[in-house]
């Protein structure tokens, strides 16, 4: 499949902030697709808490710093990357736009962002990787993984990800036990990389039987040459155990509020997780990030990278690859502007001193 170039001339007019795409996406998406992408657990407490926690962090900028340039270069897993932004793993992106994950990957590569390929992607992982890997300005390509009922099936998926050029595995550890959400899929939109029998059973006992444990993390590390990160870590004790287990990194995430309603906001959980790992492994974060100042706050709290989800889906739905690329460009521009306004010329200069006391 030919990569989709993010042609800026196809952008909708009047869009100046990432959040501007949400209303446009709602007008375009069918009811089923909108319900799936905007879904939340329970009453949506965690979704609201994610946004409120970023908003509650106040910036305390430095002035008269004599800046001459702004550098967003980031070091992650030993590699120098052009940006601390990564596209969060999101399933079934062809529900948002016919070009789906291939368009999202092309947009991420063009803007120097990392891309985390969902195991529930609606296009073959090889086609998605081919849209991303050739760009020499790209960020990292990682593969997000759920443990499948049979280890042999999981291992086959890992081998495909390795062969496709993925550079790390991201094991999601917080979503095995959750309430089922009915979803009516069009016949041409399916999680094409998964075996047909990979869907878990519906009872709580069935779900518990498939929930990952630390021995599964050890097994996964033993069968791959790729670094393994854990996504869905909120408790500092789990972060400390991840270090002891030899995990390459953790992602502070509450699954965008889609699993446990009332879970702690990621901005609230982030500082304790950063403290628990004692700089021995990188800590990334997602959940409710909608603007460049949110990204700056996350980095100031100690995150080594920031995953962005729904805003990119809204851009994809509204304008395909160009829309997703535009959201990433707006986020990067806003981050650079906020860094300049806070007196920080490089990512390494973003720390807790830029957050008001009590943040």
UniProtKB/TrEMBL annotation:
Record domain FMN hydroxy acid dehydrogenase: where: 10-359
InterPro entries from the UniProt entry: Aldolase_TIM, Alpha-hydoxy_acid_DH_FMN, FMN-dep_DH, FMN_HAD
Keyword Oxidoreductase appears in the UniProt entry: yes
Domain of life: Bacteria
Listed cofactors: FMN
UniProt cross-references to PANTHER family, sorted A to Z: 2-HYDROXYACID OXIDASE 1, S -2-HYDROXY-ACID OXIDASE-RELATED
Family: Belongs to the FMN-dependent alpha-hydroxy acid dehydrogenase family.
Stated name of the protein: Alpha-hydroxy-acid oxidizing protein
């Amino acid at each position: 499949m030919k990569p989709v170039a993010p042609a800026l001339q196809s952008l909708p007019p009047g869009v100046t902030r990432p959040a501007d795409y949400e209303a446009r996406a709602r007008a375009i998406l069918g009811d089923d697709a909108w319900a799936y992408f905007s879904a939340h657990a329970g009453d949506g407490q965690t979704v609201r808490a994610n946004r409120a926690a970023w908003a509650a962090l106040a910036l305390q900028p430095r002035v008269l710093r004599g800046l001459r340039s702004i550098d967003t270069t980031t070091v992650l897993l030993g590699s120098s990357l052009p940006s601390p932004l990564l596209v969060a793993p999101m399933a079934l992106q062809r529900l948002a736009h016919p070009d789906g994950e291939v368009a999202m990957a092309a947009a991420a590569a063009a803007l120097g962002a990392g891309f985390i390929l969902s195991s529930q992607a609606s296009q073959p992982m090889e086609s998605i990787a081919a849209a991303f890997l050739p760009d020499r300005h790209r960020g990292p390509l990682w593969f997000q993984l759920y443990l499948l009922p049979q280890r042999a099936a999981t291992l086959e998926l890992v081998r495909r990800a390795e062969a496709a050029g993925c550079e790390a595995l991201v094991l999601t550890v917080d979503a095995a036990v959750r309430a089922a959400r009915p979803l009516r899929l069009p016949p041409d939109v399916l999680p094409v990389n998964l075996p047909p029998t990979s869907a878990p059973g519906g009872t709580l006992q069935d779900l518990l039987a498939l929930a990952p444990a630390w021995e599964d993390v050890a097994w996964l590390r033993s069968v791959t040459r790729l670094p393994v990160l854990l996504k869905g870590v909120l408790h500092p004790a789990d972060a400390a155990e991840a270090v002891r287990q030899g995990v390459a990194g953790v992602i502070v995430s509450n699954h965008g509020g889609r699993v446990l309603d009332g879970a702690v906001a990621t901005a609230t959980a982030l500082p304790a997780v950063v403290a628990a790992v004692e700089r021995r492994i990188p800590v990334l974060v997602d959940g409710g990030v909608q603007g460049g100042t949110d990204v700056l706050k996350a980095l100031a709290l100690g995150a080594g990278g920031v995953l962005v989800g729904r805003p990119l889906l809204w851009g994809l739905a509204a304008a395909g690859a160009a829309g997703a690329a535009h959201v990433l460009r707006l986020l990067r521009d806003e981050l650079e502007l906020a860094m300049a306004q806070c007196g920080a010329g490089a990512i390494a200069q973003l720390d807790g001193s830029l957050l008001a006391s009590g943040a």
